[in-house]
């Protein structure tokens, strides 16, 4: 059940982990850690069933000791035609048990009676089922990875590894192996490098949402591997990639700009259009919601580098959490569960590595070329950003 536990934990903590009661986080963590790696015999059975009995003949070598274990599969290193390959192999039965596993985790959460109503557990469960089902489809992930490889082919500082098609299928995904240190380890490098990596992370996040409208939404630090020798961020794991509707992205950009500019009325209007607010909220809820938006907009509010080393964004949002949980009338829009997971992850990564990033300039670069609406009319309900 660890895939289900991980996914629901992500759903419940999209704003801040402090909003989820500690006993719930502890229970979910126990479930997440509860599975062992596949033994060699079982691994061979899975590979024979998925790739055919002659799969090993396509390889020069295959290491049965996994180099990583994730929530729904484990990763092994291999060699094919002189190229190092990473093979992600799904645990048997994971895809078939999504519905029952998530329902079992929900029963656990319901039994504790600790989930605040303002977290809207039923909506989180619904979104979790859809997301986990997509993440179990490695053919879809392979297509996502190929799309990102194409989108970022000319983007300096990023690399998306090749997909090895003849060793990939619905439950096995093989890609070019790439090296590097997980993004959080960049914290031990010099300030110039930390600033560069932080800038590239924010640049990527803004491009994904506002240029591609296609985002890899899992902010796990190990999905971003910094190669110091090439000054490149190697990007892996595209199971959680998804696209976003044009109208949603239009209004979300309007809201981000309004948050950066401190425009309360526009934040409220865009929040209604996006589905964050119903229009019937109390003043206490509106105040907390707008204040949270302004806090998240702080890095984009002034020109020059924003110093994430002294940022207290997460603490400030946490202080508003109780009010929002108590007064919230509607769950977040479905798109936001994945989107805010990625956005908060990007901020947390910049905080972790202590980066100074010109966030407003990055947003301006996106905004000045952005075309709003189907007809491309560049219309804003708020003032411009400069």
TrEMBL record:
Database matches in InterPro entries: ABC1_dom, ADCK3_dom, Atypical_kinase_ADCK, Kinase-like_dom_sf
Database matches in Pfam families: ABC1 (PF03109)
Highest rank taxon of the organism: Eukaryota
GO molecular function, one term: transferase activity
A single BP term in Gene Ontology: ubiquinone biosynthetic process
Signal peptide (UniProt feature, chain positions): none
The entry's keywords: ATP-binding, Nucleotide-binding, Transferase
Domain ABC1 atypical kinase-like, chain residue ranges per copy: 31-270
Presence of the UniProt keyword ATP-binding in the record: yes
Family the entry assigns: Belongs to the protein kinase superfamily. ADCK protein kinase family.
Descriptive protein name: Protein ABC transporter 1
Species this protein is from: Populus alba x Populus x berolinensis
Organism classification: Eukaryota, Viridiplantae, Streptophyta, Embryophyta, Tracheophyta
């Amino acid at each position: 059940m660890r895939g289900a536990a991980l996914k629901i934990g992500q759903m419940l903590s999209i704003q801040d982990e402090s909003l989820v009661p500690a006993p719930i986080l502890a229970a979910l963590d126990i479930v997440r850690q509860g599975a062992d790696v596949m033994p060699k015999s079982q691994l061979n059975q899975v590979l024979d069933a998925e790739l055919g009995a002659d799969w090993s003949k396509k390889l020069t070598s295959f290491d049965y000791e996994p180099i990583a274990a994730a929530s729904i599969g484990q990763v092994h290193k291999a060699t094919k035609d002189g190229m190092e390959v990473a093979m992600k192999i799904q645990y048997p039965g994971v895809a078939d048990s999504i519905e029952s596993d998530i329902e079992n985790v929900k029963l656990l959460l319901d039994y504790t009676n600790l989930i605040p109503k303002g977290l809207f557990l039923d909506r989180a469960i619904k979104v979790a089922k859809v997301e986990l089902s997509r993440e179990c489809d490695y053919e879809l992930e392979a297509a996502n990875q190929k799309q990102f490889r194409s989108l970022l082919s000319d983007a300096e500082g990023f690399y998306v590894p090749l997909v090895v098609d003849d060793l990939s299928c619905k439950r096995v995904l093989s890609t070019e192996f790439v090296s590097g240190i997980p993004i959080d380890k960049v914290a031990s490098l010099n300030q110039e490098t930390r600033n560069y990596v932080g800038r590239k992370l924010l640049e990527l996040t803004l491009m994904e949402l506002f240029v591609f409208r296609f985002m890899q939404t899992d902010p796990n630090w190990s999905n971003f591997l910094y190669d110091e020798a090439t000054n490149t961020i190697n990007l892996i794991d595209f199971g959680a990639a998804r696209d976003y509707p044009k109208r949603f992205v239009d209004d979300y950009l309007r809201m981000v700009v309004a948050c950066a500019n401190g425009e309360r009325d526009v934040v409220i209007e865009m929040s209604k259009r996006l589905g964050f607010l119903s229009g019937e909220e109390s003043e206490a809820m509106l105040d907390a919601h707008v204040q949270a938006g302004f806090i998240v907009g702080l890095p984009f509010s002034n020109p020059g580098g924003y110093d994430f080393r002294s940022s207290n964004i997460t603490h400030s949002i946490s202080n508003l959490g109780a009010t929002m949980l108590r007064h919230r009338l509607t769950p977040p829009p479905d798109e936001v569960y994945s989107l805010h997971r990625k956005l908060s992850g990007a901020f947390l990564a910049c905080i972790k590595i202590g980066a100074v990033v010109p966030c407003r300039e990055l947003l301006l670069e996106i905004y000045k070329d952005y075309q709003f609406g189907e007809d491309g009319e560049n219309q804003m309900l708020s003032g411009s950003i400069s």
